[in-house]
Design brief:
Length: 457
């Protein structure tokens, strides 16, 4: 039986890896999710046959409740809420790993030094991911106020103190007898560290933060897999942790910032906001009918989606507009920045949902050379990823971040709900440029008016 269990776990691990590989391409991503899901189903099922396994009723009840909640939420949660859903699910994985660590630490006398150390490390990482992900969820849902809990100049110092205390408690548990009170204090401190670390991080950094917590959750699961001698947990956790780490690095690189800078700079907090008084010129409004004429008689149009498109659920209307323009002979392309939205790949997912073909979606390196030849760059809900200050203003918090060169198009149209700075709190000088016009209003409503205007020509 033990051989059969190990074979099943190995098969599940292979399915995890193959599923993750297929998720790397939009064409095969759906199949990849199914493959990974089958692997998880195999791992769960074979666990019931583990030697010494008990509490079957409790296990079945927990699986039923969890599966039911996931099924309902998966069906009901709109694409606009996908970032917070992913943050929440990341946290649940971390919380599960932390719970395993706590249980194993309570069995201190039955474990050796190494196993207790792994349980403590995995438990701490899982707890940090759990509480941090919950705070990220709250920020994305506007349930948690932006800004840190402590003054910015003291944030790093407090983080070091909390992390040092956490390490000291962990060492005490591993070397000495892990008392219940000490274990409780250890996990409360880990949960606190996740909150303290996440609170100062602004919305512009959310894609990096979500991928980081994904990596931490995977790492925590891998550590607890070592504690339980569970091959499926070890391999799955390692793969998720490695993939999340690589994705985090890619996201940070796309912002031209180190991970340390992302975690501790506080981009998007009050201190980094720029006053509109420093801007030259003014925002110039335009009517939807004029934009429709401009786009209908253009040769090349590049559409730049951002989080505002997700909030307005305007992706379907934007694609309908693109189809109308193409029917008139206009060449339409979509430009995607790696950190557009609130999670990695956010815009790609929304456009795919609307039916936009993959060959019309271009990343930053591919599309930037085409902006100077574009007659119109239509920006819907994007802010930092098209801000020219990233190239020229050394005092800007986003200086050095690679951006989409939308400002180099002959005409720039920005669909925006109002004159605010957006979620990140950084003012955009593009909005004041001579070639830029502001189409104020809800993204979906404005897209509908543009469709009506093009049809009327």
């Amino acid at each position: 039986m033990n051989t059969l269990i190990q074979i099943a776990y190995f098969s599940a691990a292979v399915l995890f890896i193959l599923g993750l590989k297929r998720m790397s391409s939009p064409v095969t991503a759906r199949d990849g999710i199914v493959w990974a899901g089958v692997g998880m189903g195999v791992a769960i099922l074979i666990t019931f046959f583990w030697d010494g396994m008990q509490n079957y009723l409790l296990m079945i009840t927990a699986i039923a409740i969890g599966s039911g909640a996931a099924w309902v939420s998966g069906k009901r949660v709109p694409m606009t809420a996908m970032p917070e859903m992913i943050a929440l699910y990341n946290g649940m994985g971390g919380g599960a790993a932390a719970a395993i660590g706590a249980v194993e630490l309570l069995k201190g006398e039955t474990h050796g030094f190494v196993v207790l150390g792994l349980a403590a490390i995995g438990g701490a990482i899982g707890a940090v991911s759990f509480s941090g992900s919950l705070v990220a969820f709250g920020k994305l849902r506007d349930l948690v106020k932006r800004g840190g809990l402590f003054p910015k100049d003291k944030q790093k110092q407090i983080n070091i103190y909390v992390l040092g205390a956490l390490a000291a408690l962990g060492l005490f548990m591993v070397i000495g007898k892990p008392f219940v009170v000490v274990i409780l204090a250890f996990f409360l401190l880990a949960l606190a560290f996740g909150v303290i670390m996440t609170m100062p991080i602004g919305g512009a950094d959310m894609p990096v933060l979500i991928s980081l917590y994904n990596a931490l959750t995977g790492l925590a699961v891998a550590f607890e897999g070592l504690v339980l001698d569970n091959a499926a947990m070890i391999i799955a956790g390692t793969v998720v942790g490695a993939a999340g780490t690589l994705l985090t690095q890619l996201m940070a690189k796309a912002m031209n910032r180190s991970l340390t800078n992302v975690l501790f700079s506080g981009l998007g907090t009050v201190e980094t906001q720029i006053s509109t008084e420093a801007m030259a010129g003014s925002m110039k409004a335009i009517e939807a009918s004029d934009v429709a004429v401009m786009m209908a008689f253009a040769e090349r149009v590049i559409i730049v989606p951002g989080y505002g498109m997700a909030v307005a659920q305007a992706q379907h209307k934007i694609w309908e507009l693109a189809v109308l323009l193409e029917a008139r002979g206009v060449k339409v392309k979509f430009a995607i920045h790696p950190v557009a939205g609130r999670m990695p790949g956010h815009m790609n997912v929304l456009l795919a949902e609307a039916g936009v073909p993959y060959d019309k979606i271009y990343d930053l390196e591919e599309i930037n050379v085409e902006f100077p030849q574009a007659d119109v760059a239509l920006i819907i809900g994007a802010n930092d990823v098209v801000n020219p200050d990233a190239r020229t203003n050394k005092s800007s918090p986003i200086y050095g971040m690679p951006i989409l060169d939308a400002d180099k198009a002959r005409n720039v149209i920005v669909i925006k709900r109002g004159r605010g700075t957006g979620f990140s709190g950084v003012e955009n000088t593009l909005f004041y440029a001579d070639n830029c016009r502001m189409l104020y209003g809800d993204g979906q409503k404005m897209a509908s008016e543009l469709i009506h205007g093009v049809k009327a020509l």
